[in-house]
Design a protein that fits this description.
Order of helices and strands: HHHHHHHHHHHHHHHHHHHHHHHHHH
Distance between the termini: 75 Å
Shape: extended
Radius of gyration: 32 Å
Largest sheet: none
Number of helices: 26
Oligomer: single chain
Strand content: under 5%
Number of strands: 0
Helix content: over 70%
Length: 453
């Protein structure tokens, strides 16, 4: 984007808007038009920005800055071809302007021509007074190309120029991670801390690297320094909580999670972590209480719903499990996992017709679905309901994604037996080894076929 400094110049917006109302055409100099257009761009009033540009370019047809503002809007609107035409005109008047090459790079990048974008960005460097911005753009192009070594080089330049450029730091750490170069990441963070010992971001990132290496003592120390640097840094308390949880010091973990909640907005994730610790301490009432807080803060927080539904399933409290399942699906309707849990509960409570609806819904939502358990439960429901032809159709669908599955072929054989097609049933059974068949016959649903099989 063109850098128009509005601190040095106040655009005559009132005068321009008064002109539009009266249909008069007043004269503004080129700088005034630049300020007016930039003002409308900043406030998202692109229709007024377009109108100002139309009048401005008519009054100053050779002004390259106005033309570049026009091309910038066209890029924003996805009109790349038209934008390049305008840039070409602007290039006749300001051929060595960095914005010419930056806009060409933007169009190339958005068109997925990333090597070409890099060429334009390198040309922009020749004319730029702020190379940091272009280094960052080059780094991003190389990240997209998964050339992490080159990306690392440019983000290192950004940090060398400005150690407070945290966005470049995060991108650099990502490149190190992709290169499996944790030592390089640690060295970079330590070099930042030598210059700025109170960089809470650097301490936090250093702690995360140590945590990933299971160096828990060093990680806690780093996170504690992050808190010393900024005692309102809730993320550091959360990370310490995670370590204490990993060390099975659940009460200490809970303490740190509570501190995080006190100094920041309510978080479904933190409530969930507290709930999880209480569950591991067998504080089941508190577990339920904090899970409820988690899903109240964020009804789309799938982990919280799954956790409490599974909790009640394990306790064989299917009434409460189903109650939470139905609540969860209100805000997570496309969650295959929650749908399958509801289907499982309905299956366990012998509500087979209802279970079929949920299992079939999962298969409709997901193409190429490969969770064998859902297919098998659906087939079993249909067999119990004696919808054998429908079960056979489902088996054909399942075998497209689960080729030669013994469990599914066995159920196909059972269906053929039920339909009196004994020869066909035996043909399917021959594809399954005897030990597998014996294990499958332990299922109460099929135990009566032991002698026949």
């Amino acid at each position: 984007m063109l850098n128009f400094n509005q601190d040095d110049f106040t655009p005559p917006i009132s005068k321009f808007e008064a002109m539009l109302k009266t249909n008069q055409v007043l004269f503004f100099d080129a700088q005034e038009f630049e300020g007016i257009v930039q003002y409308y761009i900043d406030y998202g009033k692109l229709n007024l920005a377009d109108r100002a540009l139309e009048i401005g370019i008519n009054q100053h047809p050779t002004n390259g800055e106005l033309l570049l503002l026009k091309s910038e809007i066209l890029i924003f609107e996805g009109e790349f071809k038209k934008s390049l035409e305008v840039i070409k005109i602007a290039e006749n008047f300001i051929p060595q302007h960095e914005e010419i090459f930056l806009q060409k790079a933007t169009i190339a990048s958005k068109s997925k021509q990333h090597y070409q974008a890099i060429e334009f960005l390198n040309k922009a460097l020749d004319f730029s007074e702020d190379q940091n911005e272009i280094w960052a753009l080059l780094g991003m192009e190389y990240l997209i190309l998964e050339d992490f070594q080159s990306a690392k080089y440019y983000f290192q330049l950004c940090l060398k120029d400005d150690i407070l450029d945290y966005q470049s730091l995060y991108n650099l750490l990502y490149a190190y991670d992709q290169l499996n170069d944790s030592n390089g990441a640690i060295n970079t963070l330590n070099s930042i801390l030598e210059k700025d010992p109170y960089s809470e971001v650097a301490w936090h990132q250093l702690g995360k690297i140590y945590f990933s290496q299971n160096k828990f003592k060093e990680a806690i120390t780093a996170f504690e320094f992050a808190i010393i640097s900024d005692d309102k840094f809730s993320g550091a308390y959360i990370e310490i909580g995670k370590i204490q949880e990993k060390l099975r010091k659940y009460n200490l973990a809970i303490e740190n999670y509570h501190i995080a909640l006190q100094i920041s907005d309510p978080s479904a994730f933190v409530y969930y972590k507290i709930a999880k610790c209480h569950k591991l301490l067998s504080n089941h009432t508190l577990f339920i209480d904090f899970i409820n807080k988690a899903v109240k803060v964020d009804p789309t927080f799938e982990k919280g719903w799954i956790s409490i539904i599974k909790f009640f399933i394990l306790k064989k409290d299917y009434k409460n499990a189903l109650k939470y399942g139905f609540k969860a699906i209100e805000s997570n309707g496309d969650s295959s996992f929650i749908l399958s849990l509801i289907g499982d509960i309905l299956f366990l409570t012998k509500k087979y017709s209802d279970a079929v609806i949920y299992f079939e819904n999962i298969i409709e939502i997901n193409k190429n679905y490969t969770d064998k358990k859902v297919w098998i439960n659906l087939i079993d429901c249909l067999i119990i309901l004696y919808k054998l032809n429908r079960a056979r159709v489902i088996i054909d669908m399942a075998l497209e994604y689960l080729t030669s599955s013994s469990e599914i072929l066995f159920r196909l054989a059972i269906i053929e037996l039920k339909l009196g097609n004994n020869k066909l049933a035996k043909k399917h059974l021959k594809l399954i080894d005897k030990s597998t068949i014996n294990n499958l016959l332990k299922n109460n649903l099929y135990s009566t076929y032991r002698n026949i099989v």
